[in-house]
Each structure stands twice: as structure tokens, then as C-alpha cells.
Design a protein that fits this description.
Blueprint: H1 3-6, H2 11-43
Length: 44
């Protein structure tokens, strides 16, 4: 087997990007919100 056979192609790559976006964007938002609230908690 080579790397080309294992790489996602065309539609599969788009679905992979979409899936990670659906998970990553809300996760990033939650991390940012948590950091903002924690900074307010400790800075007064």
C-alpha cells in the first residue's frame, strides 16, 4: 500500500473538512468563552 491509496479523495476530503468544522468551531468558541470568563473571575 502507498500513501496515495489511503488519502481521502474529492468528496471524502470535503466531508472530512465539514465534519471537523462542525466539531472544531463550537469547540473553539467554548474554549474562548471559558478563558474570557475565567479571566473575569480572577481579575475582578
Amino acid at each position: 500500500m502507498n500513501a496515495r491509496a489511503d488519502a481521502p479523495r474529492g468528496n471524502a476530503r470535503g466531508r472530512l473538512v465539514l465534519g471537523w468544522s462542525l466539531v472544531g468551531i463550537p469547540l473553539a468558541y467554548g474554549v474562548v468563552e471559558t478563558l474570557v470568563r475565567v479571566s473575569r473571575l480572577f481579575t475582578g
